[in-house]
Write a structure and sequence with these properties.
Elements (H helix, E strand, L loop, with lengths): L1 H12 L8 H7 L4 H29 L1 H19 L5 H29 L2 H33 L1 H18 L1
Helix pairs in contact: 1-5, 1-6, 1-7, 2-3, 3-4, 3-5, 4-5, 4-7, 5-6, 6-7
Amino acid sequence: VVPVVLSGFCAFLSLYAPQPILPMLAGIFHASDVMISLMITASTAGVALAAPVIGQIANRIGRKRVIVLSALTLGVATMLTATSGSLGMLLFWRFMQGVATPGVFSVTTAYVHDEWPPRGAAHAISAYVTGTVIGGFSGRAIVGFVAERWGWHWAFVLLGCICLAIAGYI
């Protein structure tokens, strides 16, 4: 069950993580509120575009492989977010994070239903949902605290390292 919890954690760690630092990023990139809000929109657009396709890919190459590759991609894209020198690049990497996310969150639920007996699947999905909630909260908290002390770049590097570590574990 631990890998399932970590998958949920990883999937939502980065998705809404920039929320507490949007005002900071708006100032750094001289962006309006509307433009900086695209930080969240870009990742959710990536999720929306990738989600319909990822299930087909998982059926072809295997669910666990897609979960691990997606978590790795999510970690790398999150770390590359820290290299952004413009709002456009920042939005590009946020979009790429969104593209990688469904391979972790939607494929994990299918994997649980395939690999666990019905009674165990309900427990595993409950654990997974717990991981998603903790991941969503943790991403915001980590980014807020790290960005305040060491800068926004290090916040994304740390989130990326966490995703890579989870990919290595699962």
